[in-house]
Design brief:
single chain; alpha/beta; Purple Acid Phosphatase, chain A, domain 2; 5-stranded mixed β-sheet; 4-stranded mixed β-sheet; 8 helices; about 30% helix; binds fe (ii) ion
Length: about 250
């Protein structure tokens, strides 16, 4: 693995097999002269281009953590998989699964930068959001966010999983950053109660983090790209309802 520049780097997450969004983001990162990228997981799961996505990511050898869908892809029997995991599973080979299996659930990029997929404890828990009993996805209270950060003595804590770009600063100055989703701007989930997550834009999203004398400077980048090929792949796989999600960032 190349040396990671922990003073200025890009943060990507939740690609979900959208290789055209990934290519657009990688171009945008290169255009800014940023050489280091950390990837927060959920790389392949989805009805689009899982194999192509894996074949782009694996040679890049960037520091990456394992998402819940990566874990399920690597460890669940095909017949027990969720349809979007199964769609990805059917495209990939043992070498791709081996790569997923080797990913750590969390990593430290320096003594000051920590990365995980959901929270430090769980790859299926939303860190900066919560779902109300009515199914509304809302910002999580600060004390709950801080409780999940207990014991992680980093200035910058990175998470993905909710597909929503958000930064929250804790009272002690630690910064928690979710870069949003590269390739899946809207989805539905049944747990803890049925809800929708909607970024409200189809643009591919990621974040840039830079250490300054005054603290962590962060920015979100929304990169427009043509989702047409990904929509066709989803449709061909029986997931035509992904068209609106990919094109608009809304479920419907
Ligand atoms: Fe996830």
């Amino acid at each position: 693995m190349k040396t990671f520049d922990s003073s200025r780097f890009a943060v990507i997450a939740d690609i979900h097999g959208n290789s055209d969004a990934l290519k657009a983001v990688l171009r945008d990162i290169a255009d800014q002269g940023i050489a280091s990228i950390v990837n927060l997981g959920d790389h392949l799961s989805g009805p689009m281009a899982a194999r192509e996505t894996a074949d782009i990511l694996m040679p890049l050898d960037m520091p990456s953590v394992r998402g819940n869908h990566d874990r399920w892809l690597a460890a669940t029997a095909r017949e027990d998989m969720h349809p979007v995991d199964g769609a990805a599973f059917d495209q990939i080979e043992a070498r791709h699964l081996d790569w997923l299996r080797r990913l750590p659930p969390e990593l430290w990029l320096s003594g000051d930068v920590f990365a995980c997929h959901g929270t430090p404890e769980s790859d299926t828990t939303y860190w900066l959001e919560t779902v109300s009993p009515e199914g509304d996805v809302v910002a999580r209270p600060r004390d709950e966010v801080a409780a999940a950060a207990a014991g992680i003595e980093a200035g910058l804590l990175l998470c993905g999983h909710t597909h929503l770009p958000r930064r929250m600063d804790l009272p002690d100055g630690r910064v928690i950053l979710n870069p949003g989703s590269v390739g899946c701007p809207a989805y539905v989930d049944d747990l803890p109660v049925p809800h929708m997550v909607q970024a409200g834009t189809g643009a591919a999203c990621y974040a840039v983090a830079e250490r300054t004398g005054a603290g962590w400077q962060t920015s979100f980048r929304h990169v427009p790209y043509d989702p047409g090929r990904m929509i066709e792949l989803a449709r061909a796989g029986g997931h035509a309802h992904w068209e609106t999600r990919l094109a608009t960032g809304w479920v419907a």
